[in-house]
Amino acid sequence: MVGLVSIQASVIMHITRVQLPARKKKKAKLQHVARSMKKQQCISWENNSNWYSPLAHLQDTQGFAKKLFSCLQKCNETFEVKMMMLKVIARTVGVHQLVLLNFYPFLQKYIKAQQCDVTNLLAAAVQVPPDVVEPLFRQIVDQFVHDRSRTEAIAV
């Protein structure tokens, strides 16, 4: 249904661009139909049952993030497990716009030029509040931008 609506909308938009409508009313009517089809497509996308995020259904998001972060600080697991926990915490903080201030200094410990999966760590650090952003950027600049760093590290 969604694909059919998007195809119909694209055909109508193509008709309005390629063919020169003889009358303004006809052109306005086509644009109105195209807008209404786009609205239907957006509404059907929002009601789509294929998209499911368990993070959207958490009851105590701040408590969940704090507990998971305390487990992360105490765990002696492999780096991959720690990265997965970091991603879940970062996603929870981003989705619910939480404030977890000890999380960002913890991330600074792992942001190093020789670290594997640096891009994943930087993606986790995207949801940084403005008052915490300066030390994190200072760490990134100190670790990645200097005269002996590799070009791949500078590109990050």
Termini separation: 41 Å
Find the count of extended strands (DSSP E, 2+ residues).
Answer: 0
Task: Determine the oligomeric state from the structure.
Answer: single chain
Q: Please give the domain count.
A: 2
* Largest sheet: number of strands, sense, barrel closure: none
From the helix content, strand content and strand pairing, which structural class follows? Answer: mainly alpha
Number of helices in the DSSP assignment: 8
Instruction: Give the helices and strands as they follow along the chain.
Output: HHHHHHHH
- Helix % is 55-70%
Taken from the alpha-carbon principal axes, the silhouette is elongated
In the predicted model, the low-confidence regions spanning at least 5 consecutive residues are: none
Q: What fraction of the residues are assigned to beta strands by DSSP?
A: under 5%
Notable characteristics:
single chain, 156 residues, mainly alpha, 2 domains, 8 helices, ribosome biogenesis, Protein SDA1, transport
